[in-house]
Specification:
The chain is α+β, with helices and mostly antiparallel strands. It has helices at residues 2-18, 33-47, 58-68, 82-91, 100-105, 162-175, 177-190, 199-207, 218-224, 261-271, 274-283, 297-302, 313-317, 319-328; strands at residues 24-29, 50-55, 76-80, 118-130, 213-217, 233-236, 246-254, 287-288. It has 2 domains: 22-122 and 248-295, D-Maltodextrin-Binding Protein, domain 2 (3-Layer(aba) Sandwich), CATH 3.40.190; 123-246 and 307-329, D-Maltodextrin-Binding Protein, domain 2, CATH 3.40.190.10. Helix 7 crosses helix 14. Bound molecules: fe (iii) ion.
Length: 332
């Protein structure tokens, strides 16, 4: 009996010693590790908390967390696109966090109403054109690109990319399903060539004159900005006379199964702080969630813009409709 008790105690001790130390956090992320590492190094110096990254594709990571459940190492799931964060929320992998700091630092439309996930940077998706072929005054809105004046002049990335699904979702919210379907059909009619598989490819096609105009996330243009080869690519802020340019987020939430929710929340709070925002957003040439934070020179040159203030969670809840719409409109 005494032996048995000793055995039980040993098992308990072993399982205790295997528990994750409180100064260690794990982020499952679809973001490129090199974008986060310098920031997490800074956090470690400041707090002594070490953060481990487990990288992968967002759908697999979400699934993995759901399957691992209580056995998961993940304290935080970090990814891009409100549509994906919304899906993760629906999957039930996030804890609802009520943090005064997060609620204060992050504008309401850029986070989940119940505190499941929080936007940490903004990603604008707007019009880019070839300045040898198009004059800035000819451009207005996403909707305008559906008119016949753009026939054989438009290039687009595939609608299967979540960025375009979210853009279409924002248009459904603003204009309704039927009107948006007309617009998307107009885009398809105006395509100069097959849809592209990446924003960078489509930008290069615009620069080469294969087409005159496209819609991309601005950080892809920023990556080409230093190369004189692409100096004919110019940005136009879409829909400035109306609801504003479509903005999506990168963001994160605390995992429901985390053994260290307090420290995980503190890390998210820090990522939303003045100190971290500039570096976090700057790493991928995105925009900080707070307008007061400085941006780099390329973004500064593009100037300020009016952004669509849609609740980004709608980009998730309207995602299915957006997929259906793209199919019905023949947008591959
Ligand atoms: Fe991207």
């Amino acid at each position: 009996m005494r032996f048995l008790l000793f055995l039980c105690l040993s098992v308990l001790l072993v399982s205790c010693s295997q528990e994750k130390p409180s100064d260690l956090l794990t982020i499952y992320t679809s973001r490129q590790p090199q974008l986060l590492e310098p920031l997490l190094e800074q956090y470690k110096e400041k707090t002594g908390i070490e953060v481990i990254l487990l990288s992968g594709k967002a759908p697999q990571l979400m699934e993995r967390i759901a399957v691992e459940a209580n056995a998961t190492e993940a304290d935080i799931f970090m990814t891009v696109d409100a549509g994906v964060l919304w899906q993760a929320g629906e999957k039930g992998i996030f804890e609802e966090i009520n943090s005064e700091i997060l609620n204060k630092n992050i504008p309401e439309h850029l986070r989940d109403a119940n505190g499941k996930w929080f936007g940490l940077s903004k990603r604008a998706r707007t019009i880019v054109y070839n300045s040898d072929l198009v004059s800035a005054k000819d451009l207005t809105s996403y909707e305008d690109l559906a008119y016949p004046k753009w026939a054989n002049r438009l290039c687009l990335r595939t609608s299967t990319k979540v960025y375009n699904r979210s853009l279409i979702a924002s248009m459904i919210d603003a204009d309704g399903f039927a009107a948006t379907k007309n617009v998307v059909q107009g885009w398809v009619n105006n395509l100069a060539t097959e849809v592209f598989s990446s924003d960078t490819q489509v930008l290069k096609a615009v620069s080469a004159g294969q087409c005159a105009v496209t819609i991309v996330n601005t950080y892809y243009l920023a990556r080409l900005a230093d190369d004189p080869k692409y100096s004919n690519l110019k940005l136009h802020w879409a829909n400035q006379g109306g609801r504003g340019t479509h903005v999506n987020i990168s963001g994160a939430g605390v995992i429901k199964y985390s053994k260290n929710k307090t420290e995980a929340t503190k890390l998210l709070e820090w990522l939303s702080s003045n100190e971290a925002q500039e570096t976090y957003a700057g790493a991928n040439k995105e925009y900080p969630v707070m307008d007061a934070i400085a941006v780099g020179s390329i973004l500064k040159n593009w100037g300020p813009f009016k952004e669509d203030l849609i609740l980004v969670e709608k980009l998730g809840s309207l995602q299915k409709e957006a997929v259906l719409l793209a199919q019905e409109a023949g947008y591959k």
